[in-house]
Specification:
single chain; elongated; mainly alpha; 9 helices
């Protein structure tokens, strides 16, 4: 049994890492909710400033990402400063502050662009979990085929890498959606996402092809 698994153990390991990443990312989506929304909101603000610059005749150039990072950093600093002030004042003001934060969060969820960005970030978690498990299954399937050992290793590793690349593309797309818009954000990661999907598809087709080959060859 160990000898059968040996050629595909790297693929299985990568698949397990994909599953672990999916779980970790889901945890961050919950625990880092405010930080994520601050980052998305900062990118949306940069996009609005860029549009204003285009209308006024000022070229936005290639500073959008840098402005976004600065806005995110500034937002985090302001958030920490405001939290300290709220803690110092306490009392009814703290309750009022909490109510305002809740209203602000609901407002962001009502924003279609923010909701789409968040949906794409969640899909990164779903794809990481699903493709991680798929990599493990494909690796185990090809381990029991007549495929040469070196091809087994290559196919399992490439499938695992594709299973990691594809969800990362969705996460990048989610963060870029408020800044670039839905279509441009999708186009910006299309090549990477396509490469990841192609690697997984190669693994699926190779596993299916050798499985069918072995089935029909045994019948003969």
């Amino acid at each position: 049994m160990v000898d059968l698994i040996r050629p595909v153990r790297l693929g299985i390991l990568i698949g397990l890492l994909g599953v672990i990443f999916g779980i970790a990312w889901a945890s961050y989506l919950v625990l880092g909710h405010e930080r994520i929304h601050s980052a998305l909101e900062a990118r949306a603000m940069v996009a609005e400033k860029s549009k204003e610059g285009e209308v006024s005749g000022t070229a936005p150039g290639h500073h959008a990402e840098a402005q976004s990072n600065e806005a995110v950093s500034h937002s985090h600093k302001d958030g920490g400063h405001n939290n300290k002030e709220a803690g110092a004042q306490g009392g009814d003001h703290g309750v009022h502050e909490g109510h305002s934060m809740g209203a602000h969060d609901n407002l962001m969820h009502d924003n279609p662009m923010m909701e789409l960005a968040h949906t794409r970030l969640v899909r990164g978690h779903l794809h990481a979990m699903g493709l991680g498990l798929a990599t493990i299954v494909i690796s185990l399937v090809i381990a029991f085929t007549s495929m040469p050992a070196i091809i087994k290793t290559a196919v399992s590793v490439l499938t695992g890498l594709g299973g990691l690349i594809y969800p990362l593309a969705w996460i990048a797309m989610g963060y870029r959606t408020p800044l670039l818009g839905p279509e441009m954000a999708e186009s910006s990661v299309a090549t990477i996402a396509g490469a990841g999907a192609a690697l997984v598809l190669i693994g699926v087709l190779t596993a299916a092809g050798f499985t069918l080959k072995d089935i029909f060859s045994k019948r003969r």
